[in-house]
What does this fold into?
Amino acid sequence: MYPYPWLERQWQRLVGQIESNRLPHAVLLRGLEGLGIIEFAHCFIQALLCEVRIFSYDAQGVDNTFVACGKCSSCKQFQVGFHPDVVILDATESSVGVIKVDQVRMLLAFLQQTAQLGGYRVVLIQRAEAMNMAAQNALLKVLEEPGEDVVFMLVSHCPSLLLPTVVSRCQSVECTLPTTVEVQQWWREVSTGTEQEQKHQLALLSVVGGAPLRLRQYLASSWYACRLECLEGLCDLLDRKISLYAFVQKALDWPLADLLALMLSLGIDALKLSLNSASEYVSNQDALFLLNRFSNQSHAIVSIDRFVSVIESLYLSVQASAAQNHQLSCERALLSWQALSQYVNGS
Ligand SMILES: [Zn+2]
It folds into this structure.
């Protein structure tokens, strides 16, 4: 199986190139984190090396794609992470999150061998942007003469950090964000929630930049529960149902950077609504119940803008140094939020 439905087009393209013997010796998969492109690369390499590929046929009986069998010796060796014809480079091997020139140089011995199983030899570079300049220059030399039946597969979440000469030696395969319909269909298959819960979960897609796997990861972490609590608390603070002191005590349990990131994003959404933007342009779709109270409040723009500046400066300080006074920063942020209560509807 190819990993995710929104990458089907990219799968068809690459598989078609294997079938017609036009697979380039270097492919660059480009796309945001959270789209599953590293998993895609693994599935593709397994299918490329599989000894018994499984073909599927379209309605006209023409084979239009294939996948790995999952059972042959090549598949089994790949699945356990010890395939003799595959080398995977990743920044996590290095202590400083960088792919170093030595890692690239070590490829030379691998590239001089012949394939142990008689097929392709594959080099997968995960998070290729983690290569430092020396590593990228060394890779450039290898890409000039890759050897027979060698395929380089680079995966990058930030291809602008790659040397243009590296990019130009690869065939780029763009992995774009899935459509709403694609995510909804997939979510129905993977989510165990009720229809109402799924709707609420999908409203968070815009918060995580539209990347479905990031959404799944976030929902499974404490981030989601914390977010719900924060939103409820911020609403209560506007309505003066909770004291500032009580909220600050609660907020001390949450990561300060997460709270400030949420407040900053809410502030920007509130600005959009007070400028009469349509609610579809709001990032925090799950907080519309709260944000709609700022809509059509053009006289509040200056105050909301000031609020955004305060939160932004606190957020930048926290990013720059973890040694912030958590309580003071919370108080400052929440006081600024509370000052907006005079502008909301229905308070
Ligand atoms: Zn197989």
